[in-house]
Structure formats: structure tokens, C-alpha cells
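We emphasize that the prediction below concerns an isolated chain of 304 residues; any contacts that depend on oligomerization or on bound cofactors are therefore not represented. The input was used exactly as deposited, without trimming of termini.
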Amino acid sequence: MNNYDVIIAGGGAAGLTAALVLLRARRSVAVVDSGAPRNAPAAHMHGYLSREGMAPSALLSRGRAEITDYGATLVDGEVVDIAPGFTARLSDGTALTARSILISTGLSDDVPHVPGVSERWGRDVLHCPYCHGYEVQDEPIGVLGGTPDAVAHALLLRQWSDDVVHFPHTDTLTVEQEEALAARGVATIPGTVARLVVEADRLRGVELVNGTVVPRSAVFVRPRLIPNDGLLISLGCEMDERGWVRHDPAGRTSRPGVYVAGNAADPRAQVITAAGQGSAAAIAINTALVDAEIAHALATSRVR
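Result of the prediction step, given as a C-alpha cell string:
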């Protein structure tokens, strides 16, 4: 079958949760996913009640099994284009049609091009204090500048450790930022960062271009968050002044029949948040489908 009530592009926490809710509402659903989730490098996820410390891959595996049990169609691949109607063209050339579309394709993290950052991402180079701060509490923590909100990140992380060092890297701090860091007890070490020092598969420190090595056991980076919104843009969905898709709390976009959930819409959504957004979007989608079915039934009965 290539015709569905709903096609979901992206099978992370948002997409799989939406699929589960829709399937339990007896909707036909296809989930298309490339199998490359944003949190793949992380060994554990946190802050998800009853799933604390679970591997992200285990959550997705369990979710896929659950929606399969309810009759979902799971497609390993990528939606590369969606035509009005909606017809989704996949990376292998397959075409699927649906009455509604949910985009849950997530976002991409743009991190500073410092040797060691990408290689250690999700291990001891981290981005979310609420996700990973507890695991490195009281350890020597570094915060790498060069991205927006790095100073705010350093100020926040101070509550997890008394030993937090901010490396401005390519940033120039304002007087107000310097004063706030000093008042909060966060040390600032100027100079461009050359690389992260890794020994025996563990982060050992941050090396500056002058050769100075500052011992650190964890480094936090506030990445530039780039939504994977190509499908939303191609569908003509309105964007806000920040460059993110406009949507209401239920994930409705400006384009009728097109919904969004998870990090593709909300850069701050954690796994549990994304799952909740997927559920809300699924209920909104089903409600809209029911409304359309009622309108069609009324029109048909009047013709008779």
C-alpha cells in the first residue's frame, strides 16, 4: 500500500509517538526514517520518567517494535520532496501519498571546528546541562566559546561544579559578560583553542594555540542549532523571524494538512518534550481528518 492517512517524515521520539497515537486511532501511517538520530552518539538519555538512563537507540528500537505491532509501515529512507496533495518522494524513488503530513526531521548541531569536538560529541563533549550535567557534577568543566549563548551556558553550568572555566575562543566578551562570569565564580581563559587533548579514549584537557593545556574532564558546547526544515520550506510553510517554522501548540503550520513536532520546530525540545509534541500533533491531525470526513459525509448525504 502506498496511500496513507498520514506520512511521518522522521522516526525519532516525536515521530514514533505521533505514529503510536494515530495508529491507536485506527489511522493508516507510514513512518519514513533514515536511521541517523541527532542523539545517536549519546550512551544514555536523561529526564524521561521511567526511561532514565536508557540508551537512545533502545528507546527507538522499542518504539519501532510497538508501532509495528499496531500495523505501521516503517520505511528505511528519507523523504526528499513532498508535492501538493500530498505525494512524498523518497530517496529510493518510491512515491507515497497521504491526507496529512507530519515533519519530525529534527535539527543539526553546528559545532566549532576545533579538533576533538566532533569526535568526542555526546561522550565528554556535551551540549545540554540538564541532560548531562549531573553525570559530570563536581568535575573540572570547560565551556567552549565561538557559538551563541556560550557565556550563558557557562553561567548555568556553575551550579553543577565549582570548577568551571570559560574559553572565549574566537569570541570577544563584553564588560557585562566578564563581570557576570567573575561574579558567578567562572574563570575565563582567553586565547584561541587549538584542540581538545584526548588520552586513553578520555578527554584530558583543552589546549590553546600557545601550547597551554588546561586540564578538563568534560567540555560543554552550545552549538548553533539548524533545523532540518527543507521539506517545510518546499511546502511553503511560513517561517518566523528566527528562521524556524511558525506553528501552534498542536504543531499546525501555516500550510493546511502539514504539521511539525520535535526539534524541527523546537530547538530546546528534549526527548520527553519531543514525544509530547508528537502526541499533541497526532491528536490535532486526527481531529482534522475527522472534521474532513464529517464534511464529506454531510455533502454526500445532501446530494442524495
